[in-house]
Task: structure prediction
Amino acid sequence: MPLASYAEVLDAVRGVAWPALRRVRTTPVGAHASVVRGTTAEFLEYRPYRQGDDPGRIDWKLVARTDRVFVRVSQERTILPTILVVDGSASMAFPEDTFAKWQHARRIAIGLAAIARHRGDPVGLAVALGDGTIRVEPRTRSTVIEEMMRALDRAPGGSAPIARVAVEALRLGARVVLISDFLEDDVGGTGGSAVLEQARIAAAAGREIYAVHVVDRSELDPDARQRLVTDPEHPQVRRPMPPSVRAEYVRRFADWRSRLARDWRRAGAVYTMTVPGEEPLRRTIRRITAAGDPGGDV
Amino acid sequence: MTLLAPLFFQAALAVAAVVVGLHFIVTRQPPSSALPTARFVPPGSVQVTTVSRPRDLLLLLLRVVTVLLVGLAFARPVRTPERVPHARIVLADVSFAIGDPTQLRDTVRALLRPHDVLIAFDSGARMLVPAAFDTLTPGRADARLSPALVTALRAAGELRARADSIELVVVSPLQASALDAATLVIRDLWPGPIRLVETATREPAESTAGVAVQAPPDDGVRIALRVDTTDAGVRVVRGELTADDSAWAATGRTLVHWPASGMPTGFQPRSQPDTAGAVIAGDDALVFPLHREWQQADSSARVIARWIDGSAAALERPFGDGCIRSVAVPVPERGDLVLRPSFGRLAHTLTKPCNADRIGPAIDADTRSALSGHGPLVHRDAIPAPDNVVVPIVPWLLGAALLLALLELFVRRGRHSVQEQTDLAPMERAA
Result:
């Protein structure tokens, strides 16, 4: 995809807010509410003075009026380092003629990165490909989005180490977005997934986790002309697909998706399933970011 | 052509039909397309079976022909011979007892017809082509009817396919000695009458009156035999044998080499000379301590007298038309042994003409009646089919089937390699 074509993506996400789900523990000044109470102009509340408080924060006018000593508490604003993990395995190279899943995944990644960076958050990227992992370290400078666009200008394929990359990101990022079809054995919500377990720990530690599930329409409703299907990541998985088993396939796939969504949500992640071409990109981005955005657009 | 075991060929036809049917059934994999969520498709066979026109006709032909050849081999095809109403098995006696060979040949020739079977027998039996009988002359073996009957039964099993009824004819002098304990039992296996054609019997040889002894007048053997002839059918030589003696024996007479001293023909010195208490020849026995110096050297000779311990005391071997007999029984010069009747009987036995006792009496009327039996000719169905029919074409059929199987293997491998090359071609083009 040429870099210029991302202009449409950047236009689509203009004005979309992506606030943090909860107050952030970092200290650098940014756009997200911090857990630290400070002395900025954004007043939050008064609280009684306690020994050790800075006397300079005492509101003397209030003392004169009430004869009691209160301290002025204000809201600090901070940044939220965001890492996007994009699955570049062979299953994302589907359908074979359009690579719609891969195209959709990287448009979402660029869109979310642009929103975060627009809010002053450092954004990074990890693309798990069959022939290795491409990383863009979290930065706030303006060229980081362009670096990410170049990193995503690859063709997916092979068996990507998505699980390992995702676990690394969950350990490092304050906000981690996994964009995948979750068909890798260790990534899918199969109960014993290492990624899911790591996500559960990270969420408990206060990190924000977003699971963006990319599903193609052909996977939801396979072509009726297909008689034999092969898993591109596991060629040994060859299954006949006569019309008699289509209903059973649809049922099994739906069960798996609902189980996957349930497991990720139970782990504390924001789970969003998206189908390429089903809806405008802006709507997809807003569905992803809406979990922490009470007001929607800014 | 007839199949001895047609079920095998019918089974082969069924198998061939199955093979043809299987060639119409084509199992292949449909074209595969990628689907990342293929794991959610219920597992099943990825082969698709369709019915279509067979493509590999050469393989089909090879397989069908191979199966049919194997079935045909196991079915054992035999050529159906031309059947005649009446066939004859002629048992011709060619033993020593035949008195007139010409009469025997004429009799057999009169009996034999093109489809008949001729079996010549003496102590054994063998099937002959009728034309070979003209060159056959009676031998020196005794007649034995039992093996001849067994051979006739076996021949009847093969002849039943070519004749509606079978007659068994025995052409023989019908000596009683030709029968043994099993003869009548074997005869009962023949389910019909046996036609007995009696031929002339050889005349018995002359008695001891025709014995000449070449020895001094006081020789013990001469005294015991009480003969004084110089020219007779039997010559007893008490000294060394000469070429003249051998030539004389070859003319059909009996030469007895009974040396007064020295080694008899066919004997060798005994390693440890000893004394034996008796010697036995036929029904006669001489009980007397005799010094033994010689032991048998010619193992092919017939033993006609034995010492009490079983070792040979006198040997006989055919020589020309006659025979030479060697006697290793010493005759003491002293004492009255040669005057004893037992020694005389022994000497007479040992100087009998060759084959003097081989011409015995003819079989009696009761035995003849039991042997011939009565009733109609034997129908072919009364004779059991032979258990083991040799079908010469079977090895050829099996060999051809094996050859075709190997050919099928090569053709199949060739097809596979061509298929693989065809499969690889698009990839090579892409590369």
Q: What stands out?
A: Chain A touches chain B at residues 90-92, 94, 96, 181, 183, 216, 218-219, 222-223, 226-234, 237-241, 245, 248-249, 252-253, 256 (CB under 8 Å).
